[in-house]
Fold these 2 entries.
Entry 1:
Amino acid sequence: MSIIHLSAVSSEEPTAADLAGIEAEWPLIAAELDLLDAQIAFINAGPHASELETRRIRRAERRVLEVGRELAARGPESEGAA
């Protein structure tokens, strides 16, 4: 039994446009997840964190910025938004 009770905001399913928008943003979501993983590894390493963890964070940050710029350059018209 779950102690967290979540009620559905709406019983409506996502539209095709909603799903297309998520799919279009997926590279950014994946890059942000990679950054989060790198940050967690750095925190878990504590005082024993190496330069490798630091470089992994910087590399992930650059990737997030790169993918964000690519999505911004595409604009909303390519994401199916009107």
Entry 2:
Amino acid sequence: MSELKELKTAEYQDLVNQGGVTVIDFWAPWCGYCVRMMPIIEEIAGELEGKANFVKVNADEEPELARNMQVEVLPTFVILKDGEVVDRKIGFLPKGDLQGAIESKF
């Protein structure tokens, strides 16, 4: 498993400028599905290390970024490729479904 870096609004543009595939996990500590998804997304991040970037955003602490990314439900996984949103997955997902969605963007 890989501990995900907490992304702050001010760091978003630098992340986008890196290019490649990036997965942003929008979550909150009070969200049960978010907490249940955390070990799954960390496991996927470990397996795809070097192929995709993974970060998490606490939507309570970074509401501006959540609004800008049109996040209305938690958890939301926003998948970017070269800075553009190419997919988003919402809610609790089986590991294979989320990992497949990410790998299809390589």
